[in-house]
Amino acid sequence: MLLTTTAQGLYCSVGDFYIDPWVSVPKAVITHAHGDHARWGCKKYLAAKDGEHLMRTRLGKDIDLQSLRYGEQIAINGVRVSFHPAGHVLGSAQVRVEHGGHVWVASGDYKIHRDPTCKPFEPVKCHHFITESTFGMPIYRWPEPREVFKEVNQWWLENQAEDRTSVIFAYSLGKAQRVLTGIDAGLGPIFCHGAVETLNAAYRASGVTMPETEYAGRGEQRKAWKRALVVAPPSAQGSVWLRKFGEISTGFASGWMMIRGTRRRKAVDRGFVLSDHADWPGLLEAIKATGAENIYVTHGYTAQMTQWLNTQGYQAQVLQTRFTGERLDAGAEESEDLATEVTEDTEGEAEVGSAE
Ligand SMILES: [Zn+2]
Ligand SMILES: [Zn+2]
Questions:
Q1: CATH architecture, domain 4-140+276-325
Q2: Rounded to the nearest whole angstrom, what is the distance from the C-alpha of residue 338 to the centroid of ligand 2?
Q3: N or C: which end of the chain has fewer CB within 10 A?
Q4: Could you tell me the pTM of the whole model?
Q5: What fold is seen in the domain 145-274+349-355?
Q6: Is the dihedral angle over the CA atoms 270, 274, 276, 281 positive or is it negative?
């Protein structure tokens, strides 16, 4: 077994490195900058070049980070390691590991649907594929993002006509920028929460083209707010920061909006089905394209997915993760509104508190 799970996370003993470790380790290979994958405090980091600004924004600009272009290969103690686009967020990568003729690929989080903020998912041939399964149930089938953005635009226009500020909740790393590049920026001004604006800067520094945005903080902007779209992390829901906009209509961009009742439970006016994870057909397509016989399922609906794959002739098993069975495991960045353990946006709120 070239990759095994240990108490610290997914480990390559021949190469002596971890992939997305759960604790700080000497050498961490990171699939992407989301908090449940990129942990603070590792001695050395290796990640895809496209995600360099995000890694430094999240983990500190002075981290010891080596970055590789997609497809570029290096040897770590004789193990060949390379990154390949995962299509999940900017800089997200599948990690390909090869030794003694055996090829393993750890997918990290991935999606198949097109996203202008990052390179599209690229299937990589391997013998052993470690796949996520955040939305690994047949009920999850995403609508075309183009159609979803049409709905968002329509909702924004309706709110303008009613003199209401449109507030859309979207995870601050990835989803928020995807919303920004997907909507019709010509409809009105766009303001962002501090946590989103910080990451917007990292995206722009990485060369991603986005519409003009402004931090929604100052009173003199007040007149523009009525016609505006405000992009905020889910944790801003119910916050003091949100009150300054006066009358608002709220929307939520997440794959979970597919489930009946989620919108009502989240107490938002509109749900927009937009996910940065593969849906059920996407997962199956990706798994098939690897040509792998051995599939290890992690994150989310692991038992259901594993069972199904075994009926299809794969050798599938659940890959134990630290948070198995807990909410945080089920696509933390999608369920941050449920999982208070996710730290990122508490920072954003602290920032907002001081700006008030
Ligand atoms: Zn992620
Ligand atoms: Zn994740």
A1: 4-Layer Sandwich (3.60)
A2: 14
A3: C
A4: 0.91
A5: Rossmann fold (3.40.50)
A6: positive
